[in-house]
Amino acid sequence: MNDDEIKKYALIVATMAGFLTPFMGSAVNIALPTIANEYGMDAVLLSWVATAYLLAAAIFLVSIGRIADIYGRKKVFSIGIFIYTLSAILSANSPSGEWLVAFRFIEGFGASMIFGTGVAILTSVFPPGERGKALGINVAAVYFGLSVGPFLGGFLTQQFGWRSVFLSNVPLGAITLIFIFWKFKGKEWAEAEGEKFDYTGSILWSVMLIAIMYGLSLLPAIMGAWLILAGFLGLTLFIFWELKVEHPILDVTLFRTNRVFTFSNMAALINYSATFAVGFLLSLYLQYIKNFSPLNAGMILLAQPVMQAIFSPFAGKLSDRIEPRIVASSGMTLIVVGLSIFAFILSETTALEFIIASLCLLGLGFALFSSPNTNAIMSSVEKKCYGVASGMVGTMRLIGQLLSMATAMLLFNLFIGRVQITPENYPLFLMSVQVAFIIFVILCIVGVFASLVRGKLRDEELTECKLPGN
User: Fold this and answer.
1) Cα(322)–Cα(316) distance, rounded to whole angstroms?
2) Could you say which of 83, 137, 265, 309 is the most buried, measured as most Cβ atoms within 10 Å of its Cβ?
3) 177 and 204 in one domain?
4) Which residues are CB-contacts of 180 (< 8 A; sequence separation ≥ 6)?
5) Are residues 238 and 321 located together in one domain of the fold?
6) For residue 385, is pLDDT > 90?
7) pLDDT greater than 50 at residue 164
8) pLDDT at position 268, please?
């Protein structure tokens, strides 16, 4: 198989996988009120249906990126698709809300294998001049999954029940596996083969994230504050360990020596912290406050990801010719405007036209930010570190999403408490949503500055990622 064929098939496989995980996430958001009704789940436990998946993916993503560099990206990618597909079947057959949360955690583990390798495989086969376009197409697939997720999730939930949302992922997962073994037989990418894996660092990273996220879910209880403190102490230990170990799971020196890499990741973290819970909150708002059916709510939420899918390839290609920080910062600015509209106009009487227009603006902003920012991160390191860099791209996204959901959970705890969302507490629910959007606006304003100060990629394009011991 020649290089052009490898590029083509790598893009096809990565695109199919890129569609799979965001489709599930956006479709499940629409099904949450139905799931809550069936299992009698309170607002905080319901949030864990989305958060458990994100937490597992974030826990394992950096480690998986390193494992893929050592043992092979195709191998890890294939195992991830299998686990993800199996966990979808288990989720569809959950006997209780607690079991559903557990199966979603397993699903997140499988997703970490997909996140940590898909972009790395693309970056391995596409040279810098073509990389932005390929990443743009991949991001478009992600946003296409986000686009059809609300609509199909609403349709499936309304017509066949929420369990059908999980089962709908099984055929595509099976097709992707078949395609991998058919077209990439004997092909592998493992530039760090033979190097040691950092087990201690991996454990420290996992324990740190679990402590912080579980602690946030317990606030304002004192135990939550202690767990968060323990988590940050764990983060400090993790950084010290990674600086001295010979083959770290995360090359912390990248953040000290590579300005583009550092601030691009910071911008991604802030962006996702300020935006991920938007779909979750609006899904609940449209079904509880506006009394829309799952299908109609899903159709309204289509506006944002459709805009993302349309403009992401253009934004990725544009970032091959114009400094990614300029394109990404423009996108982040549009997101600030879109979030501000929600923060100050969202109420029981808000016109549907305003909601859709704001979603369209957010979608355009996401498109202009995501693929140029990813291009900047991946193009700032050498090939040997593509798996780690890809893992960091996914990790910043997932930690940002976790923090976004943690914000929503914390506000639910403060305003509503551990009770079901019923008409009696709709005013408190709406207040928590409005406060969340105000927090997101502030975060995104900070993100604009982080995006602007990253420096010029063209000046640092030859910056090497030097892992300790090399």
Assistant:
1) 10
2) 265
3) no
4) 13, 74, 77, 78, 81
5) no
6) no
7) yes
8) 87
